[in-house]
Write a structure and sequence with these properties.
Distance between the termini: 132 Å
Largest sheet: 6 strands, antiparallel
Structural class: alpha+beta
Order of helices and strands: EEEEEHHHHEEEEEE
Low-confidence stretches: 48-65
Mean pLDDT: 76
Number of helices: 4
Oligomer: single chain
Shape: rod-shaped
């Protein structure tokens, strides 16, 4: 087989190998190889055998899609862990809010017992026959008292509400009154439900 004058398999142009087994077509610029079967154009198989980078036939989109799938799977895995960390991060805040609520309940109970007529109102309802018949005895207050107290050394005004609990039922105690010269003039309202209807027991009394 003469190697001086061979034809390019891509365009048919004459190629001069000049005593070598590799040449470039001067017309179509194809990379050509001289083999036992004749002249062959550049191919992926031949490039790999010659330790050259593949020049065509590589399915690049397949590689890109696989990389995107791996990236999406990794980001999805990271997202599933964030809510758990977020719940743990909120735990100190929830504990702080609970402590504040407990402190407010305790301080309101202490304030109305020390400065207001809460104890006096409880004594009134625990000794009233109608209230004792409806609730049983003893009747105790809930932890959270809502209301206000205003005044000074000679006189005060109070208005507050507190849940109450007895052996028979629960209800609400509403108290309003004024304090002057060491005596509370109180209006006490006991509100509860019986047979689906709201019942109110009103008591007006002066206590020290």
């Amino acid at each position: 087989m003469a190697i001086d004058d061979m034809a390019c398999p891509n365009c048919g142009a004459s190629v001069d190998f000049a005593g070598s087994t590799r040449a470039i077509c001067s017309f179509c610029k194809s990379q050509l190889y001289l083999t036992d079967d004749g002249v062959e154009a550049s191919s992926v198989r031949h490039d790999l055998l010659e330790n050259q980078p593949a020049t065509r036939g590589v399915d690049v989109p397949v590689v890109t899609i696989d990389q995107q799938r791996n990236s999406l799977a990794a980001s999805s895995s990271r997202r599933t862990t964030f809510p758990k960390l977020g719940c743990l991060g909120c735990l100190p805040t929830l504990l702080f809010i609970g402590m504040c609520a407990g402190f407010i309940m305790l301080s309101s109970q202490v304030m109305f017992r020390a400065l207001g007529p809460l104890d006096q109102a409880l004594q009134i309802i625990n000794s009233d026959p109608a209230v004792v018949q409806a609730f049983g005895k003893p009747i105790t207050p809930g932890p959270f008292v809502t209301g206000k107290i205003s005044g000074g050394d000679t006189s005060s005004l109070a208005r507050f509400s507190v849940p109450i609990y007895g052996p028979k039922r629960t209800g609400h105690l509403q108290v309003s009154g004024s304090w002057r010269k060491g005596i509370w003039d109180l209006s006490v309202y006991v509100v509860y439900e019986e047979d689906g209807e709201e019942q109110t027991i009103q008591i007006t009394q002066k206590v020290k």
